[in-house]
Structures are given as C-alpha cells and as structure tokens.
Amino acid sequence: MLLVSLKYSPVYSSLMYAIYCTGRELDTPIKFFCHNNYLPDLIEKGVNPSDIIPYAPQKKGFLYEFLKKEWRQGLNAIAENGSINCLVMNPHPANAIFLKDYVTYIGGKRFLWLHEPHKTFSELLAYGITKGLYFYIALLVARWSVKNIEQCLLPSKYALDRFRKYYPAMASNCSLFPLMFSKVTVEPKERLYFSFIGHVNKGKGIEPFLGLVEYCWKHNLQFQFQIISSTLYEPWLSRAKQFEGLNLTVINKETISDLEIAEGIASSFAVLCLYTTVTQSAVVANSMMQGTPVIGSKAGSLPEVVVNGKTGYIVEDIYDYANNIKLLELSISNKDTHQKYCFEEFEKNYSVNLIRLYLSQIIT
Fold first, then answer.
1. CA distance 140 to 129
2. Are the C-beta atoms of residues 135 and 141 closer than 8 Å to each other?
3. Spatial contact of 115 and 154, defined as CB atoms under 8 Å apart
4. How many domains in the chain?
C-alpha cells in the first residue's frame, strides 16, 4: 500500500500516521510518497525513514511542482515494489497528473481521498475572489483526478451525496472515510471563551463571529471570545484588534501546535462554526475530542455532525446576534452535559481507533 500526499498539512500528517500504524497491525506494509517537508514530522511521530519516499522540489510553489513534475523521479522507486494500491490525499493540483502517471507506470488500484467534491458558484464567492478562484481551480483538478481512480473516499455523508450527484458515473465507487484523530489529552481547563478555530476566510464564518464579538461589547454582555488561527489577515485582523484585550483574546502566529489548539478548545464553553459553506470540519472533530460543543450554522455537513442540544447547537441565522447569544448562555449552563455527549461523539465517530474499519476497504 502506498500513501501519497503532495501537500503538507498537519491534519493529513496525523491521519497518515494513523493509517501507517493500522497498516502494520493488519500486516500490510505502508510506504509514504510525499514532499520532504513531511519528513521531520512523520519521523518524529514514529514512521520508519525507510518507509518514506520523499521528493524535493527545487523551487517552492504548487504551480512549479505542477509544471515541472519533479516528484516523477520517485515513481521509479515505487515501481520496484510492483503493482500496489495507492491512496492519494488531496488537495494538490499535481494529483491529477500523478494519478495518470501511476496508471501508466505502476498499476494497482487507485483511491482518492477527496474532501471537496463540488462547490456551487455562490459557495465559491463566499470565500472571496482570490480564495474562490483557488477552489475553482482545485475543483477542475479534482474532476481530472477522478477520471484516473477506481474508488473515491469522502469525509462525510454530505460530501458522499454531493459526489454521487456530480459524478453519477462513479456513484457506486465511493465510500465514507471521515477525518480521524489521535486523542490529544490536556490538563482540565477552566472554560472561559467562545472560540473561532482554524483558517480565516468568509466561508469559515469570521464575519458573523466578529459581529457577535462587537454586539456583545456594545451591549455590555460579559462573554469572552477567542480566535486561534495562523491565517488571520486583513481586513479581519484590524477588526479583531479593536476588541483584543476587551472581550477578545487573539492567538495569531505562523505555527500553532496541536497541543495549543487542544488547550484553546478545552478552555472554551463552545467553538463557533458559523460557516457559509463546509463539506467536512476538523474543527468539529477536535472540539468533540475536548468535550466542547459546537455552535454551527446550517451550512453543508454541520447539521449532520452537530447533534442539536447535545454536542452543540445549530443556529437559524448566523447574523441574528440577539437570538444567538441565547445559545452561548445554554452552552454555559449545560456545559457538563455537553462535555459528556461530546466525548462520546468523538469516540463513536472521530477516534483513530475506528480507522481499522475504514482502512480495510482499501488495503484488502
């Protein structure tokens, strides 16, 4: 079994290592083919260096890799192992070319883990022009990639339904493969905040979050908020700075560790996911891990993964601040009950202990 990731991401790194460990338990050797940026992280986690086939682009940037295809040199090392199954982790524009080459030079079954099967034009606009254009290109590449696989793996039932709708020819060749995580255990924390976690853009609900912060400050409501992100840029950075030190704490730096994220979530009454579009969310899984409920919108998969009244709440209108603060109050008064349900939800749906079930469909 070959696990391929052409783009660095801590989320994929954790999942990749979990697949690696489970493969060993199932007596199925797994090798990685990945950017050399992965090397330190994977080796630190416990991956044997001999199980990694790295490639090192001469220049930075996905466009350079897409055009130069320097990762092709690793195909010779892969080919020595004969025809083996291949799981490609998206997103990366080179996936389509890689899969096409894999058909030509290697053979073996090809699986694509695709977390964004389709977005409508209005959903793309919700991210802004630059980010929306990036996603549009990614979707075009995804369509190309799907042509060269036998099986597509999707992270939620919502994503699965979307894939079947927009790829009807592959409707019988797709299955569920959710994000799964190793549990990060932290010391018990006093819950203080309502938090925004992760990437900052329009689609991720930063505008209604900051609107809620402003509303509470102007109405002398004593809620405290928190942003933990490595991508808090303008214009939202300036807006957040207006309330920093008042009713908002901001953790904004280039690298934020899994432990820091876990501690931030554990110190929260709830995590706010007021998204306008979402297919899957690592934030939800990590919130469940720390026994922290999610206050989410009706967008995408959120109504599927947030059990209203138990593991969080679904809001009717992300900009109806007067009504949404009632959910903040409920999160505080019901924190012990929410914690119980969230811990149960993590073990039931997001723990890497479940990965054997999902991985067996790929490696057998």
1. 17
2. no
3. yes
4. 2
SS3 15: helix
Tokens coding 167: 């790829």
The distance from CA 223 to its chain's CA centroid, rounded to whole angstroms, is: 28
Residue-wise pLDDT for 185-202, tens only, equals: 899 889 999 999 988 877
Task: Render pLDDT for 233-264 as a digit per residue (tens, 0 to 9).
Answer: 888 999 999 999 999 999 999 888 888 999 99
Is 340 within the bounds of a domain?
yes
**Using CA atoms, how far apart are residues 91 and 5, in angstroms rounded to an integer?**
8
Q: Is 242 within the bounds of a domain?
A: yes
User: What residue spans of the chain are helical by DSSP H?
Assistant: 10-25, 38-45, 62-68, 74-79, 95-105, 121-125, 129-146, 157-166, 206-218, 236-241, 258-266, 282-289, 302-305, 321-333, 335-349, 355-363
Based on the domain organization, do 57 and 135 belong to the same domain? Answer: yes
Is residue 293 assigned to a domain? yes
Residue 131, domain extent? 2-177
In this prediction, residue 10 carries a pLDDT of 61
